[in-house]
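Lab notes, practical 5.
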Amino acid sequence: MKINPLKWRLHWQIIFSLTLSFISGVYLLPNLDATFVDTWIYLSSFVGELFMNALKMMIIPLIVTSMISGVMQLGSHSGIGSIGTKTLLYYTFSGLCAVLIGLILVNGLQPGQIEKETALAMLGEAAHTTSENQLFEKVDNRGTNDLLDIFKRMLPTNIFKAASDNGQLLGIIVFSIFYGFFAGRLPDTMKTFQLQFWETSQSIILNITEFIIRFAPIGVYGLVLPIVFNAPIGDLIQTLYWFFITVLLGLFIHMFIALSLCLKLFTKVNPITHYKTMFPVILTAFSTASSSATLPLTIDTVSLKANVSKKTCAFTLPLGATINMDGTALYECIVVLFIAQLYASIGGVDLTLGQQCLVVFLALTTSIGVAGIPAASLVAIAIILPAVGLPIEAIGVVWVTDRILDMCRTSVNVFSDTVAAIVIAHSEGEEPYAQVAQKD
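Output from the prediction step:
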């Protein structure tokens, strides 16, 4: 019996690619000639970057065409206000739920309550890590003013410059909402022309996106292999085992229990059906570690395979990729309390209930406010730590795990966006999956 991976479904191809990258990075490459390994890693990284660049190339066109056509279809100002309010309420509720899960787990498992000598060694290594400038440059001079920058990013001075900067996606979204709203108020003839133009453009962009996604298995291999090969897995397991487990357990609970309950309570959709349908999206988010880069596939999958209207997808998903960061908020909460526990282990004072509530609030708000900044989670943590009396340099404790956990929390962020689209669609009278065959 011949096995042809090219005929497999996309999610099976991506799983095969991930498996192959792990086997290659952990077992094959370490035993091969160093010159060959360097060349192979370079070529893999090159292919991975090409795939990422292709996905990123589609982000701005997809956001603009989707949101303008979606807002125009929403029609009246009240229609935009209704779906906008529901979307923001969902994102606030799901983010708060994620942070509380992190808070409960980190207090229950106490991953930072370790021997004094071990804690001193870890905190000393953290200071050494930041002194080598790679980490500290990302968080230097960060403060609560970064929360206010979200409003500046909503109204960029140059929309074309904003389009070339992924940190300005929120500005693109706001501009598109304004454009779609006022285009919808044009006389019928002009409005019809505008709507046809933007819907046609959206269809073209989605077709290009589908073509790019065909190369996802190859791109995923190129993205994941260098990470697996270079990741200090042994050190990670030895020194940060319980921290790592706490974060993964929190992400698992939020993704597979909290969001499942959300689907069950607010829609008629079977959670298992939704997980199966969104599996390629989850795997791509894991591989790219970028909600924005995954956005083209997210919109394509939710619209075509989950039968959610274009207008709902156009509003909820681009906004979610920018401000809905459940996994990031959960991670920030656990990191800050984990570091506090390390300092308590060497004779420091435990955070009070009031300080922990402040961590919850800041984790929720900073996950939104700094989402567009490179190394967003590190920047957010750098804002929270001084607020509860902890040194910024302590971020170096978790530096070694950041990339791997970033891949995991991005998967949760993106999946939460898809749940939002389903919930909002149901609240607007749509029936997600109603016309989709329920089969494996």
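Observations recorded by the TA: The two ends are 22 Å apart (CA to CA). The first helix runs from residue 10 to 28.
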